[in-house]
Every structure is written in structure tokens, then in C-alpha cells.
Design a protein that fits this description.
Helices cover 30% and strands 18% of the residues. It is of the alpha+beta class and 98 residues long. A three-stranded antiparallel β-sheet has the order 1-2-3.
């Protein structure tokens, strides 16, 4: 590193001009997808949602029944066992006697 570059953040030295102007990007026409994976927990409770939702913020797949999470499987568990979600559903149904 030359004396001229001392004190400068090396990560910002070569930023793409598009990236440096992100705060100026117009997004008023953006609409969030109308899909359970993009809805908040409160929105899913109000529906009431039934089904599977991939919650990337919590790194898990959630099994919802009538607006309530009844079971969840982490992405880590799914990586170890590809049938973890199916097992979760079967276990839930078996516990209910279905």
C-alpha cells in the first residue's frame, strides 16, 4: 500500500458507480410479492394461512395450520436429512390421529 492510500478503506476504493448510487434508485413502483414466503407472521395469522413457508430470516421451513406455526425444521436439519419436512408433517398428522 502506498502512502497515498494509507487511511483509505480498501473495500470502497474500486466500487462500481452503480453501487455507489443505490440511494438514488427509485422504488416507488416496487410491490412485494403476494406470496406467503414474503408475508409477515402477523399477515399469515390474519389470513389464516395453512401450508409450508420458507422463512429465510429464521433459516427454517415452517408448517402452518390455520394461522399458527405448528412445527418448524431448520435449514441445517434439512441439509442433514432431505426428508425432514416430510417427517415433520407425518409426525404432526400421526400425533393428531389423522
Amino acid at each position: 500500500m502506498s502512502n497515498k492510500d494509507k487511511g483509505k478503506n480498501p473495500n470502497t476504493a474500486k466500487l462500481n458507480p452503480i453501487l455507489t448510487n443505490l440511494s438514488k434508485v427509485v422504488t416507488e413502483d416496487f410491490k412485494r410479492p403476494d406470496h406467503p414466503d414474503f408475508m409477515t407472521t402477523e399477515e399469515l395469522k390474519k389470513l389464516p394461512f395453512t401450508g409450508l413457508r420458507e422463512n429465510k430470516l429464521a433459516s427454517q421451513v415452517e408448517f402452518w395450520i390455520v394461522g399458527e406455526v405448528v412445527y418448524s425444521v431448520s435449514f441445517e436439519e434439512m441439509a442433514k436429512d432431505p426428508f425432514a419436512v416430510a417427517k415433520m408433517q407425518a409426525e404432526y398428522c400421526r400425533a393428531r390421529g389423522e
